[in-house]
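Example 3.2
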Amino acid sequence: MAETIATLLALAAYATCAVEVGRGVLRRQPAGTLAVAALAAALLLHTGALGLRWAMLGHGPFTTLHEILSSNLWSLALVVAVSVLALRELRDALWAAMVPLAVLAAWLAASDAGPGHLPPTYDTPLLYLHTVVGKLYLGLLLVAVAAGAVPWLGRLPPDSPAVQRLDALAHRFAGFAFVFDTLMLIVGAVWAQDAWGRYWAWDPLESWAFASWIALAAALHARSTLRPSPAVFGALLAGVFLLAFLTFFGVPFISTAPHKGVV
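Structure, written as tokens:
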């Protein structure tokens, strides 16, 4: 009961943040202090909810759709919040980050919160390492997408210093995301060897994860060689994030390959 209440309060705080960010967009202003405070409150409540569930079940939020949605909503929001607090100019970009956060929050609210079974293949430190680098990858990529999406609103001139600064930040965050994406694939391959006796088998999840890695590499390469406009680079990153989003939250729950057995 306490976990459910904490989760609902966290979702309400996320919704408050989304409303405040939306009001800022309508006023053509960056996200204000109330939006950032609501996001911080949501994270605090969400941390409590995840901790209560972990203590109740004896394992982390790694198994069911509800747990994966909840833990990823928390980790994405955490990376976004830390980035916005560290780099004030990213407040202009918070509206774009809130879109996938809102999708995950709504999906979480509608999901079954029942407990799941922890597979034997999860009894390894590789689980935690794989999870951490994967969440950092997706969170950093989301910040990159948000920074790259600011020119889409047309609120700032394309050649303004603010847009150029956000474009540089999008490139930087995407580069960091690529590093953690690479680490996620490497750790995942080592885990697969430990779990099934093979490093790679091109099952659907592995294939989509590799496709996401290729797509991000291609976007970074295009940024370095073709020099697209900030708006175009933002669109490339958005396409990569959509592919990654489907990899994280779609493929594991529809695949009938062995990889499905560890989700």
